[in-house]
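Students often ask why we bother encoding 3D structure as a string. The short answer is that it lets us treat folding as translation between two languages. Here is a chain of 123 residues written in the first language.
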Amino acid sequence: MRAVPTDLAQNHGRSVATSYIQPVAEWVGTIAQAKEEDWEYAMPALERPITTVVINLDGAMIPMADSAGWREAMVGTLSFYDHEGERQHNLYLAAAPEYGKPAFLQRMEREIRRAKQRFPEAL
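And here it is in the second language, the structure alphabet:
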């Protein structure tokens, strides 16, 4: 968290205490998590029809600064390809380390459902 006040001072000429930044960051994060279920990624207009959707899911074990333990951060992509096998678009999802993966997996499943609705004929 020390990098934020340093960045604000060096790049924006603002001196801000860490004791102020921490609750603001938590507040913004709480709002983002509450709104996330309603957010939809806006798929751009694609020049070519999509025939294949590739789904990737991966995780990495991250050491936690506040403990001796590790937790898994999750990443996923949905990649949209045309008939020639040329990628037309990628949708990226990620989640910070959490206890368990249910919230991230729900987000992935929601985006997969949306892809199926938008491209019902795609493999």
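Translate back mentally: Helices lie at 3-12, 18-36, 102-118. Keep this in mind for the problem set.
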